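User: Please work through this fold.
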Amino acid sequence: PAGDTLFIEKGTTVKFIDNYNLTVNGVLIADGDSLERIEFTSGKTVNRAGDWGSIILNAPGSVIRYANYKYSTNGIYGNYANRTIIEHCNFSNMVTAANGVVFNSSRDLRINHNDFQLLQGIGISASYSRTSQVNFNKISTASTSAAISCDYTDSSQINYNDIKGRPEMGISGVYMHNNEIIGNNLSIAELVTYNI
């Protein structure tokens, strides 16, 4: 509920036995480390992509760090989730169209050092997200849009991301202002056009 904090300790495995979402209207602190990662995964006997839904963050201040996220229908979604940190997470074994991380109207995000192994989804989308960081991520996708999409974003960093899998575009954004975009390695289907 709003105003409450859910703590998930390092080394914990969270299993979903059906197509449920974990919707957080308060704060989620899932802070693992490199030796004891947190796992969000299927609880079924035979694991398949789409066994569970997604994580939805609807308030500021959540942390998901050093987590493995797999067999879901979609990635992590956030609305008005300012100051959320998603770092050192691995996303894999999701359905074909699954996106990695999608935030709307959320500022001061820290989406860094993650590994997205997707089929056709967007790796990171952060729209209307000011003063955010999207740095040092590895994204493999054959998305028909972009690997990273940052519409209406300003004063943010999109640096040193490694994009493979030949998406249609590497980094896309309309009405982007005062952003730093440097050192990104792109292997894409065609030349990217920036509207900055």
In short: The mean pLDDT is 94.
